[in-house]
Amino acid sequence: MPIIYVSNMLGHVNLNTTSRYLNVRRRGLHLAMRAYDESRLAISLQAEAEPKTEPTTDQDQPTEQKSYVS
Questions:
Q1: Which residues neighbour 6 within 8 Å (Cβ) at sequence distance 6 or greater?
Q2: How many separate domains does the chain show?
Q3: CA-to-CA distance for 6 and 34, rounded, in angstroms?
Q4: pTM, whole model, 2 decimals?
Q5: What is the pLDDT of residues 3-52, one digit of tens each?
Q6: Which of 31, 38, 22 has the alpha carbon at shortest distance from 1?
Q7: Whole-number Å distance between alpha carbons of 14 and 29
Q8: Alpha carbon of 48 to those of 7, 44, 52: distances in Å?
């Protein structure tokens, strides 16, 4: 991933700020971004695997039967 993208992700206005903090070499950055992407994918797959519950509606609830005495 280009360092400018990393800079934007971190919210840095100046690319030199990103370079100073990361002390980046292209190979290291690629490895870090690959690990980050794999982590995001694992979280996404885990969320998809979890059972989804649908919200109940009034139609799903039993209706109250009223008896009227005259």
A1: 18, 22, 24, 29, 33
A2: 1
A3: 13
A4: 0.39
A5: 888 889 989 999 888 888 776 677 887 888 899 999 999 888 888 888 76
A6: 31
A7: 18
A8: 30, 6, 9
Residue matched to tokens 């206005």: 13
In a domain, 20, yes or no: yes
Question: For 12-26, how does the pLDDT look when each residue is reduced to its tens digit (9 = 90+)?
Answer: 999 888 888 776 677
Percentages helix, strand, coil for the chain (3-state, rounded to 5) are 60, 0, 40
Q: Residue 33 is part of which domain span?
A: 3-49
39: in domain: yes
Cα(61)–Cα(63) distance, rounded to whole angstroms?
A: 6
Give the length of the chain. Answer: 70
